[in-house]
Write a structure and sequence with these properties.
binds adenosine-5'-triphosphate; four-stranded mixed sheet; 14 strands; 267 residues; 7 helices
Length: 267
């Protein structure tokens, strides 16, 4: 079993990702696709007059401040446009894909964090009304049902809180939790960069390998949102996933290339 997470940043070639997945699926490989949608969410939020707000925690992690209106825009884009766009591509390629959010069947479950500590103008502030959280539990029943019946699940945030409230969760870490829960052989985190770069944005500074017992020390090379990917990779390998690969989803055969060792391999 392979868990593929494809991001939502500008430049990702979803046709290439879906064609590669369809070919591997047809050859009998079991896989699950998780996707993001941050770039398109930012554009739609601007267009709807509710621009995105990103906050940075005192420890340096950046996240989207998700008030109720932002959550609704987030769902429109992630569960609507992005999810159905991917499912449609796969269906056209002959794959019986089913698109679901983490809320459906509580696939992704976690604690709702209503407030976030954010650094603004050098001061730490507490912002309330946030609909975010972290996936703490993956309920695999529905996924196993789908896989067993020959469907390819296409999953996306949000997750469900323990109270049944939709929460925005990081897609990379959700995919990592899923890979651990399913005892996946590999987790691919595909985005619009060749992998983890030592000197971002210099693409020639690609880090080719990260030892599984030392992932956290590579956090220093990741800026803002890339930090969550490194954290997700650490969680996956600590949870027993043998291989995590940060790969390039901009062209070619992104899944095959990553499994063949292109990108940054954590093992
Ligand atoms: N050291 C680094 N190496 C590579 N990319 C980096 C690094 N530091 C920061 N980045 C940024 O991280 C981004 C990838 O993370 P991001 O979460 O934005 O992507 P995504 O997974 O495609 O999106 P989504 O949140 O929609 O799933 C890259 O586009 C790049 O701008």
């Amino acid at each position: 079993m392979i868990v593929v997470k494809v991001g939502g940043s500008a430049g990702i070639d979803y046709d290439a990702v879906c064609a590669d997945i369809a070919a591997r699926w047809a050859a009998g490989e079991k896989l699950i696709l998780v996707h993001g949608g941050s770039g398109e969410t930012n554009r739609v939020a601007e267009a709807l007059g509710h621009p995105p707000k990103f906050v940075t925690s005192p420890s340096g992690y950046t996240s989207r401040f998700t008030d109720r209106q932002t959550l609704e825009i987030f769902e429109m884009v992630y569960c609507g446009k992005m999810n159905k766009g991917i499912v449609e591509r796969l269906q056209r390629l002959g794959v019986n894909a089913v698109g679901l959010s983490g809320l459906d069947g509580r696939i992704f479950e976690g604690r709702h964090k209503d407030s976030v500590r954010a650094v603004e103008n050098g001061k730490v502030k507490v912002l309330r009304g946030d609909h975010t959280g972290t996936v703490e539990k993956v309920n695999t029943g529905l996924i196993e049902l789908l896989l067993g019946a020959g469907y390819l699940p296409v999953l996306t945030p949000p997750a469900s809180s323990y109270e049944g409230v939709a929460i925005n969760v990081d897609g990379d870490r959700a995919a990592a939790a899923l890979a651990v829960a399913l005892k996946a052989d590999a987790l691919l985190l595909l985005s619009n960069v060749p992998g983890l770069l030592r000197a971002y944005p210099d693409e020639s500074s690609l880090i080719r390998e990260i030892p599984a017992n030392d992932v956290e020390s590579y956090l220093e090379f990741a800026q803002d949102r890339m930090k969550k990917k490194v954290l997700g990779a650490a969680e996956a390998v600590q949870g027993g996933v043998r291989r995590v690969i940060f790969g390039d989803a901009r062209a070619g055969q992104p899944v095959t290339a990553a499994l063949d060792g292109a990108g940054t391999v954590v093992q």
